[in-house]
Design goal:
About 30% of the residues lie in helices and about 25% in strands. The chain has 10 helices and 15 strands. InterPro entries: DNA_methylase_N6_adenine_CS, RlmKL-like_Mtase, RlmL_1st, SAM-dependent_MTases_sf, THUMP_dom.
């Protein structure tokens, strides 16, 4: 018997393809990329697994109804007509998240209010009492998405954004989001098959995500809870089986993951977060200035980092990016070096030609993930040798 249903995994711009690949690798059916989203099918167990294991998903939502809608009164009637008793009771709390892109609906807050009124009135008319709204910690979070005249109603199975993995308690100024960190690592081709360096590691998010990828540890194993755990039909035994089977797929990692930062406070924060993630056996963090460092291995090295932006650190941008290029050229032969920046002008000062540039967003900032291949010896010598 096929108990599969449709779901949507939401993500960041530029990560649709790698999220689709993640879903296929997990066993999702009918995977289809959208804009900042990937559509797929699976059963309840797969919904649990998607929340637990996906690295580049921000939320997993379960569509429950869709209809055409003309105006606010039409929205109220059609929401009221739904059988909300399958999802809520008078003792559960709920919240509405609305997104609108329509000429007929211009305010998402008004759509949320109308939806809430329809649900509350349905319970009051039927049971004489109503469920309460709890915006911060609801038992059930309902998504309303109106595009032109199409309204889609879905249940948010994740709750808080899935970038909140649960291991990061100490952060620096403007830390990199965990989903963004995982996405950058996957875009860079990181698979745990060599040594890894983040030479400007901050609070250690890239290091932690790199270790979890290398060891195939479920991305959200350290999370306290998911929204689906409060649903009427939550199957705790099935969820426990999903967690156990996912942990059995972890693998050993036999290389080094190292982070540098010149700020003692950043080193301490990174070490604390790594302890929280139970990854101290795999990651070493040292107080070191990247510009005074040299490659620590004679084998291939994979480097991914997030250089500080002007607002995060008082730096001379031109000198700073020139130093990045000079350090890579002089001290890091045999290295694939990737970094993200929103300062596209500053890339000119690196003095190296990137072999790849990938458009991504860091929060609201349009950025580029750039790759520099540092050959052993000179590039010319490498190609002469190959002939």
């Amino acid at each position: 018997m096929n108990n599969n249903f449709k779901m949507v995994a939401k993500t960041m711009f530029g990560f649709e393809e790698i999220l689709a690949k993640e879903l296929r690798n997990l066993g999702a059916g009918n995977v289809e990329e959208g804009v900042r989203s990937v559509f797929f099918e699976g059963d309840t167990g797969f919904m649990y697994k998607a929340n637990l294991c996906l690295r580049t998903a921000i939320k997993i939502v379960k569509p429950i109804h869709s209809f055409r809608v003309r105006d606010e009164n039409d929205l109220y009637k059609k929401i009221y007509a739904m059988d909300w008793f399958d999802y809520l009771s008078t003792s559960t709390t709920f919240a509405i998240d609305a997104t609108v892109n329509s000429e007929n609906f211009t305010h998402s807050l008004y759509v949320s209010q109308k939806t809430k009124d329809a649900i509350v009135d349905k319970f009051r008319d039927t049971d004489g009492s109503r469920p309460d709204v709890d915006i911060k910690f609801p038992d059930v979070r309902i998504n309303i998405h109106i595009q032109n005249d199409q309204c889609n109603v879905a249940l948010d199975s994740s709750g808080r954004s899935l970038h909140q993995r649960g291991y990061r308690t100490a952060t620096n100024i403007a830390p990199i989001n965990e989903v963004l960190a995982a996405g950058l690592l996957l875009l860079s081709g990181w698979d745990g098959q060599c040594d890894f360096l983040d030479p400007m590691c901050g609070s250690g998010t890239l290091l932690t995500e790199a270790a979890m990828i290398a060891c195939n540890i479920p991305a959200n194993i350290n999370r306290k809870e998911f929204a689906f755990e409060k649903w009427h039909d939550f199957d705790a035994e099935l969820f426990e089986k999903i967690v156990d089977s996912s942990l059995k797929r972890t693998r050993e990692f036999n290389h080094k993951i190292i982070g540098y930062d010149k700020a003692p406070s950043a080193v301490r924060k990174a070490q604390d977060n790594i302890v929280n993630a139970n990854l101290s056996d795999y990651i070493t963090v040292e107080r070191k200035n990247f510009f005074d460092s040299e490659k620590f291995t004679d084998k291939h090295l994979h480097m991914v980092f997030n250089p500080p932006y002007g607002e995060r650190l008082d730096i001379e941008m031109e000198d700073f990016y020139t130093d990045i290029g000079n350090t890579l050229k002089r001290n890091y032969p045999g290295t694939d070096a990737w970094f993200i920046t929103s300062n596209l002008e500053a890339l000119k000062f690196v003095g190296l030609r990137p072999s790849r540039k990938i458009k991504v967003f860091n929060s609201h900032l349009e950025s580029r993930l750039v790759k520099y291949v540092m050959y052993e010896g000179s590039k010319k010598a490498k190609f002469n040798k190959a002939e």
